[in-house]
Design a protein that fits this description.
Elements: H1 2-15, E1 23-29, H2 37-42, H3 48-57, E2 63-70, E3 86-87, E4 90-91, E5 94-100
Antiparallel strand pairs: 1-5, 2-5, 3-4
Amino acid sequence: MRLLLAILSLAVLLGSAPAQAEKRIFIVASDADGYGVDRCLAGGAHCGAAIATAYCKARAFVQATSFRHVDRDEITGAIPASSGDCHGSTCEQFVAIECAR
C-alpha cells in the first residue's frame, strides 16, 4: 500500500506543470550618452543584446529576453505624464528590458 501511495505521489509531482521562470521588466531612461548605447537598446538592434544582458546580470538575472523602446503612454503609473523632461525639441525616451532568471 505504501509503495502504491509513493508511486502515485511521484506521478503527480512529475506530471504537474513545470515551474515558470521569474521575469521582470525594467524601464530605463534612454539617455543619449554619445556611445550609441541608447540607440542599440531602443531600436532593438543586435548590438543591444549584450547591453541588455549585462543590465540583467547586474540585477541578479540570468539573461535579457527582450528589449525595446517604449512610449511614455505605455508606462502605467511609473512616470508622471506631467514630468516633461524635454530639452528643446527632444524629450526623454525610455527603454524596456525584460530579464529572466
